[in-house]
Amino acid sequence: MKVAGRIESLAPYLFAELDRKLAAKRAQGVDVISLGVGDPDLPTPEHVVEAMREAVRDPATHRYPSYSGSPEFRQAVARWYGGRFGVRLDPETEVMALIGSKEGLGHLSFAYVDPGDEALVPDPGYPVYGVSTRLAGGTPVSLPMPSESGFLPDLDRAAVSERTKVLWLNFPSNPTGAVADLATLERAVAFAREHELLLAHDAAYSEITFDGYVAPSVLQVPGGKDVAIEFNSLSKSSNMTGWRIGYAAGNADAIRALSIVKTNLDSGQFTAVQRAAIVALTGPQDHLEELRTVYQKRRDRVVETLNALGWSLTAPLGSVYVWLPTRDGMSSAAFADLLLDEAGVFVAPGSGYGAGGEGYVRISLTVSDDRLDEAMDRVACALG
Ligand SMILES: *Cc1c(COP(=O)(O)O)cnc(C)c1O
Prior knowledge:
It is built from 14 helices and 11 strands. With 384 residues, the chain is an alpha/beta fold. It folds into 2 domains: 5-43 and 286-383, Aspartate Aminotransferase, domain 1, CATH 3.90.1150; 46-282, Aspartate Aminotransferase, domain 2. Strand 5, helix 7 (182-195) and strand 6 form a beta-alpha-beta unit. Helix 4 runs parallel beside helix 11 (271-282) and helix 5 packs across helix 6. The radius of gyration is 21 Å and the shape is globular. The chain starts with a helix and ends with a helix. The mean pLDDT is 96. Pyridoxal-5'-phosphate is lined by residues 38, 100-102, 126, 170, 174, 202, 204, 233, 235-236, 241, 246.
């Protein structure tokens, strides 16, 4: 039996590959500290867990959920956008629930990309945008995010063509931690309008920001809704990666197109999970301040350690990552291997995020303070 060509054309998903390397090292008895994957170590807030317990007991949640999310969930998202960004959304037509935002990021390409079409993807950037473009038969085209501009998109150098359908952006950025101000998003909206593209903004880290910085939504841009769809998720803001609940908001045509893909492929997220997510969106938000404080402290620990070793990093204002150039012009993979072999610390090679990530590695802040301290001590010892 032969698998489809589209499977063979895909490199193994970066994290699957990384997991294998990590497991091999651990099998040798090394106490590896993994700073590879961005998966919050803090628990889901107790009031959200409690809402889930209650929801699960209600047999009404046991049936097929609605494809686009319950009306209550969509209203909660619309209310949240109103309060957080001052953006008005019609919960009927401009909001939909997703089984984790990655599900929507993946399926969006099937709604917009025909074979032969192109999508501009941030390079370096989260791999899903390019992979889904390819699975849909299209071609991902690198959108340069030069380090000199603070890893913001260089739209003047964007290789846009008649076949370009989608412009992907992600701020605060995984993997670089870069943040975009509203003016950057305004330029992206104007660019999408000029070239008749769908602007797809992944805002998974919109609430994970530091030093008082507040991330904008692309839907705040006047006319943003004409060209943009924005993805967000409870995964990072409420430590709910395992629950798989996210949403898309914005342009009604894009929401409709995405929901057509979804109605044909899945049946929506468990209604009980949606009820818990409503509580996460509309209930007390104390946990947010707490987790920002935790990540900010960890960020400072990493940046201070590296700068004492000779780096000159600026502390990122968002995301759960520190992105750094390798030492002595080493490749991403060689430097990641060095840290694994010499310090027992596992980091993500930047080359996994596109050619523009070569020469960098990404450190994730989602391990306990103790383990991160230990990791930084080991790195200082190995590189000092
Ligand atoms: C973590 C993350 C997401 C969230 O994915 P979910 O499927 O909602 O868990 C989306 N985009 C980026 C860039 C991420 O790092």
